[in-house]
């Protein structure tokens, strides 16, 4: 686990030179903003001129839900399963911690719930109450009908959690005012692959954080997954253009060398599922802002580190198999790898040879390059 306060990237050379308030800023020594001096500290340049939330909502609203049959044909089938495994392990472990601390009536806020990709995880985790919120109205509708379906099809003696569904821009609207039960307090707020959309401005990032944390019980957790800004900047700086990526994803920046704390936009495109503007989340700033809500960072780990640690446990390995989070290489006779290029599996081939194994679980090189952009975080509300 990375120590709190330790700057990721310093170890692996990912942090560009500088040390000012911009990632890789070449000069200037702006400090990290304090509460109450938002205006003074908002970077004067690179102010967003468009409200990107509208674009983001319309993109996710248009995304079609496809069944397993179609999904399994996708070039990124295993990577999506791998991401889902990361979320499952994280959610499972946090629910265990919450229960271990004595919570019997578990309430969860799924911030940026999308089409309800995590509903089954909440069901498996046996929670009591779920609030789902997302900016994309169509996604929220689909999430709700998925939940109704799940309830309808459940066995008589299984008690499914109760749920509320809210369509809201969680980076500009106050969620607590929309709760059916105004007294509701959450054990966990889960924000999976969402928080980076709010880093368009300090005000938006702060509102998202407020929504995530203000109704957490003392000891409760704000958990999530988001791209690692250091990793993105490292790859950008290593590229001889303003873009980098491979056959499945592409990240395009507008400039490089200087990276404002907020509103540092890049365009992210991932194989038919994501095609939207996103913003760098400079983690030390998020950590600092979270203190306003009495939140302490307890875990920040790149997907690679998280995976390496979790696969040591048999239960997580079993879940990995069950969720098909890795692709078998070489595939069974008559089967097909996700990519036909042998170069995409040279690492797996090498491992088979080195360890004398017939088959290994892996991700194709391109999928791993995309998955390894992300990190897992956990904040805890102080008593
Ligand atoms: C990559 S999807 C992740 C969905 C879901 N959390 C998951 O892991 O399957 C990102 C989601 O964030 C939502 N989102 C983006 N900006 C938001 C905002 N300002 N308020 C609420 N939801 C937002 C999008 O509509 C989309 O559903």
Automatic annotation (TrEMBL):
Ligand binding (mRNA): 83-84
UniProt GO MF annotations: mRNA 5'-cap (guanine-N7-)-methyltransferase activity; RNA binding
Catalytic reaction list: a 5'-end (5'-triphosphoguanosine)-ribonucleoside in mRNA + S-adenosyl-L-methionine = a 5'-end (N(7)-methyl 5'-triphosphoguanosine)-ribonucleoside in mRNA + S-adenosyl-L-homocysteine
Location in the cell: Nucleus
Any single Gene Ontology cellular-component annotation: nucleus
Assigned EC number: 2.1.1.56
Disordered as annotated region, ranges: 1-54
Function: Catalytic subunit of the mRNA-capping methyltransferase RNMT:RAMAC complex that methylates the N7 position of the added guanosine to the 5'-cap structure of mRNAs. Binds RNA containing 5'-terminal GpppC.
PANTHER family assigned: MRNA CAP GUANINE-N7 METHYLTRANSFERASE, MRNA GUANINE-7- METHYLTRANSFERASE
This protein's name: mRNA cap guanine-N(7) methyltransferase
């Amino acid at each position: 686990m990375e120590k709190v306060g330790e700057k990721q990237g310093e170890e692996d050379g990912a942090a560009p030179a500088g040390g000012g308030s911009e990632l890789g800023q070449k000069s200037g020594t702006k400090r990290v903003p304090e509460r109450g001096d938002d205006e003074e500290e908002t970077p004067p340049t690179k102010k967003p001129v468009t409200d990107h939330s509208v674009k983001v909502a319309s993109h996710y609203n248009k995304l079609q839900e496809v069944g397993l049959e179609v999904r399994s044909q996708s070039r990124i089938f295993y990577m999506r399963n791998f991401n889902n495994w990361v979320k499952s392990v994280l959610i499972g472990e946090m629910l265990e911690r919450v229960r271990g601390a004595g919570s019997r009536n578990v309430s969860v806020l799924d911030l940026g719930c999308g089409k309800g990709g995590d509903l089954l995880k909440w069901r498996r985790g046996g929670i009591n109450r779920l609030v789902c919120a997302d900016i994309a109205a169509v996604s929220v509708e689909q999430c709700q009908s998925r939940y109704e379906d799940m309830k309808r099809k459940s066995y008589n003696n299984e008690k499914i959690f109760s749920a509320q569904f809210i369509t809201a821009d969680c980076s500009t609207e106050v969620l607590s005012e929309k709760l059916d039960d105004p007294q509701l307090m959450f054990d966990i707020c889960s924000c999976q692959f969402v928080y980076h959309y709010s880093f368009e401005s300090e005000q938006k990032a702060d509102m998202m954080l407020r929504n995530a944390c203000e109704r957490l019980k003392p000891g409760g957790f704000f958990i999530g997954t988001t791209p690692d800004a250091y990793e993105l900047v490292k790859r950008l700086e290593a590229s001889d253009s303003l873009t980098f990526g491979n056959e499945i994803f592409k990240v395009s920046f507008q400039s490089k060398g200087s990276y404002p704390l907020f509103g540092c936009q890049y365009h992210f495109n991932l194989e038919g599922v994501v095609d939207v503007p996103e913003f760098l989340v400079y983690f030390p700033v998020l950590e600092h802002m979270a203190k306003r809500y009495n939140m302490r960072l307890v875990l920040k780990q790149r997907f690679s580190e998280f995976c390496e640690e979790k696969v040591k446990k048999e239960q997580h390995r079993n879940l990995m198999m069950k969720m098909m989070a890795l692709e078998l290489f070489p595939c069974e006779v008559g089967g097909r790898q996700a990519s036909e290029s042998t170069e995409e599996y040279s690492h797996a081939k090498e491992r088979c040879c080195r360890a004398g194994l017939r088959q290994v679980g892996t991700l194709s090189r391109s999928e791993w390059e995309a998955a390894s952009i992300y990190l897992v975080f956990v904040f805890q509300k102080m008593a």
